[in-house]
Specification:
The protein is an all-alpha fold. It is 75% helix and 0% strand.
Length: 247
């Protein structure tokens, strides 16, 4: 007779594997489509335009939230994963594996773009247009707002969660529209890590690894103070929330 505990462990492991696969898949498509738009804009002398690149990032996030949100919660962003864990909305023990999956997906996407567009110089890497401090503060603020919206949507009712993809995708597109020319509007360490590693443009990478995480963590107590705490749901709630599982 099978040990019930062992069977449950195997089921949990299988579920975690699917969730990690969804995170890697989702982050791959985020980086492939978003930075891919930037690369195509680069090699075609601006045919896509800055507005097109910003919309590409927002639209791919909107689509992915509804495509894989019911599996993994569609974090596709280490800053969001860490912020959700800090808010008690995600199991802290799963944070390292989620972040690793996101980074793997991002690097694979950038490697694919390198094969497709070998003449691209930056592969859509985020590079400060001005000083490092300016970009750091801007990335902090952008991610603070993004995390605030994610936390608020995740604590909302069923109708609010159904709009999660549209709202979160719109926030990303909006922030990319006005901040992209200054800091690159990353808001996502994995999104910056992939192009930086593959293109070996590592000089300002620290900004995009640190500022989004600090911004996401700073957003947690402010959102909790403003809206109140909904309790301490686990990763299942994250899936229902961000992925619009109830839709």
């Amino acid at each position: 007779m099978d040990d019930p505990c062992a069977s449950r462990d195997r089921t949990d492991q299988a579920m975690l594997s699917r969730r990690l696969g969804a995170e890697a898949f989702g982050t791959f498509w985020l980086v492939f489509a978003g930075t891919g738009a930037a690369v195509v804009n680069e090699v075609t002398d601006g045919v896509v335009t800055h507005v097109g690149v910003a919309l590409a990032f927002g639209l791919v996030v909107m689509v992915l939230i509804h495509a894989v949100g019911s599996v993994s919660g569609c974090h596709i962003n280490p800053a969001v994963t860490i912020g959700l864990a800090a808010a008690g909305r995600f199991e802290r023990r799963d944070v390292p594996s989620y972040v690793a999956s996101q980074c793997v997906g991002a690097v694979l996407a950038s490697a694919t773009l390198r094969l497709l567009f070998p003449d691209s110089v930056t592969l859509g890497a985020t590079i400060p247009a001005g000083g490092d401090l300016q970009s750091f503060v801007l990335e902090f603020i952008l991610t603070f707002v993004l995390m605030f919206v994610v936390l608020t949507i995740s604590a909302g009712d069923r109708d609010e969660r159904r709009l999660g993809g549209i709202v979160i995708g719109s926030v990303i597109a909006l922030e990319a529209l006005f901040a992209g020319p200054v800091s690159g509007a990353s808001m996502n360490p994995a999104r910056s890590l992939g192009p930086a590693l593959v293109s070996t443009r590592l000089d300002s990478l620290w900004i995009y690894l640190v500022a989004p995480i600090v911004g996401a963590l700073a957003s947690v107590p402010v959102q909790r103070w403003m809206h109140g705490s909904p309790g301490g749901p686990s990763g299942d709630r994250v899936g229902r929330v961000e992925g619009a599982q109830d839709a």
